[in-house]
């Protein structure tokens, strides 16, 4: 038995399985050669970040756009110090909320679904140690006992600084060529050890790497004796990723561009293990415009929109979030959607090669525009169901936690969601009538971007608009005095009836308006505006203010018909009272 095999057996006496055993346990998948196997592999360190969700969508669409593609969920929980309890389930529930259900992998009930598990890295220690032992036995890796160096402090500190700065190694690890006797003496002394790759890279060496989006590039070869197994027996990302993606038969890895700098390490590691190289896509980071006007990365600590719960809490439709991200992923999505306005998003011909390489702006305003368009095409029943679901599931703790950083584009909830949910359930028929106004037809209104806006937007229909002064109304008529408006409304109340057909209703408005100095012929008004207090549109606007408090609203006739005589007149009387103060 040679030196390296003896050292391997000394390090891992209880590891009796071989790499051949694991290869047989996880055979090559019986799939079409064009089938893609992708994995989303988050670390359970907190909430789902929008950047991670962006990557998960890419994984999902790449797999689903190929014949019999497989999308896996793998939990990379090797960093126990940063682990946040329950965040594994949060990640899976977030995916499920947006309709992304893994074909196999770690599940919400913390079990394994599939033949290539376990899908939680902390359950795969034996597998990692098997391959680490193999590399040691082949002289490609070695044990390092430098966690408590004796006489090697200067070399160790220099090495670790180089590793953290991603610079080339100037000096190799001092434990590289320890004899069997030295290794045994260290182990007998109870010293902890990590396993490091014995790098063959030299200063100036180059390797070629290929990214499906960025193409081929030549980068500096790895010259570092990178850690394969930490002194706690757990592998860091590089080694776990190599072993897991090989045995799970992953075809394409989607990961952030921050991994490009360490790519050469992965290349050397795959070569040392004898694994077939994978296909990679390195995604750009999502950015926003900072306070100084400069482009910056969306921050986990500063920006509420970094947290996927933000979009759920705001009530942005899941379809809107998915379509907006697809628009960022594939530049041709927007044109496709224009040409296929009613098609399911699953019908979009996703193409990984159309992913951009520059960091895209994540624009909340643009996302809300997409959302408005989607909501405008929904039925009243759909709006009701989605709004009710949002209100019932609203998490007040999330809002309280983020009050200081919610941002200008997120309207804090002014109505208690649970109370609003109760209202909707007790007044469903009425709510459906309200939601149905201006819905359907060729030009539906596009006023609502998120379900959290519904209680405020329709506050005047749901009893949440309780004005006490003119300032509570969007009153901005310069020529029409409060007294003129009050007189007009008082006379209009005398003729109003919710039973009138729309043309009769409109003619009554014109009659009362003309009697109060308004022009009912707009051509005459444009020719001599100073001769009138306003036109018919202004007269309708005053009634609209009395009913809604707003200058703009859905169809006024329909709103009044839903409210009926009693409520309509009550609102008008209230406005008259305020105008006369």
Task: Give a description of the structure.
With 581 residues, the protein is of the alpha/beta class. Among the domains are: 295-432, no CATH class; 470-579, Orthogonal Bundle (Arc Repressor Mutant, subunit A), CATH 1.10.10. The chain has 23 helices and 15 strands. The strands form 6 sheets. It has a 4-stranded mixed sheet, with helices on one face. Strands 5-6-9 form a 3-stranded antiparallel sheet. Helix 9 (263-273) links the parallel strand 10 and strand 11 (279-283).
Biggest sheet strand order reads 1-2-3-4
Structural class: alpha/beta
Tell me the span between the first and last alpha carbons: 102 Å
Instruction: Report the C-alpha radius of gyration, rounded.
Output: 33 Å
Explain the layout of strands and helices.
Elements: H1 3-11, H2 19-25, E1 37-40, H3 50-64, E2 70-73, H4 87-97, E3 104-106, E4 112-113, H5 125-137, E5 141-144, H6 153-165, H7 180-188, E6 194-197, E7 206-211, E8 215-220, E9 227-229, H8 237-247, E10 252-256, H9 263-273, E11 279-283, E12 287-289, E13 295-297, H10 309-314, H11 318-329, H12 333-339, H13 364-376, H14 380-393, H15 396-401, H16 417-426, H17 428-436, H18 454-457, H19 482-495, H20 502-515, E14 518-519, H21 522-527, E15 534-535, H22 536-548, H23 556-579
Parallel strand pairs: 1-2, 2-3, 10-11, 14-15
Antiparallel strand pairs: 3-4, 5-6, 6-9, 7-8, 12-13
Helix pairs in contact: 1-5, 1-7, 11-13, 14-16, 14-17, 19-20, 19-23, 22-23
